Amino acid sequence: MLPRMPSDCWSAGVILYVMLSGSHPFDNEPRPSSGDWIGRSKEPRNIDGSGHGSLCMQTDIRVKEKIIYGEVEFFQDPWITLPDARSLVESLLIRDPSQRATVVAALDGEWISSEIEDLEALYRLKIAPV
């Protein structure tokens, strides 16, 4: 990855958010129980014939709005215990590409640099055995 690839850095922020929290940064609202989804699956189809009911369409619109406006929510877990990771993810998900963290900035961030010796040791052990 080149140091000035802002879309790749944004995508890395999304992936890191998912890996650490188990949810998507822009689609993390509570869902109805599975029983509610079954009832909604019988909703009428859209004019274009797609199977998306009104709930799915509303969710899609909300996700797109969150992406466009850069609305990322950091709920308590795991972010309260990982402030340096949160800072890194926030810097990667900045909407303006000119302000977004680069690969170099991300690697120099506190969360990664504080663990660099352990990360390099694991790399040598697993990837590049001596």
Automatic annotation (TrEMBL):
Keywords: ATP-binding, Kinase, Nucleotide-binding, Serine/threonine-protein kinase, Transferase
Signal peptide (UniProt feature, chain positions): none
SUPFAM superfamilies: Protein kinase-like (PK-like) (SSF56112)
UniProt GO MF annotations: ATP binding; protein serine/threonine kinase activity
InterPro entries xref list: CDPK_Ser/Thr_kinases, Kinase-like_dom_sf, Prot_kinase_dom
Keyword presence, Nucleotide-binding: yes
Every Protein kinase domain range: 1-112
Highest taxon in the source lineage: Eukaryota
Region (Disordered): 28-51
PANTHER family: SERINE/THREONINE-PROTEIN KINASE
Protein's recorded name: Protein kinase domain-containing protein
Species for this entry: Gymnopilus junonius
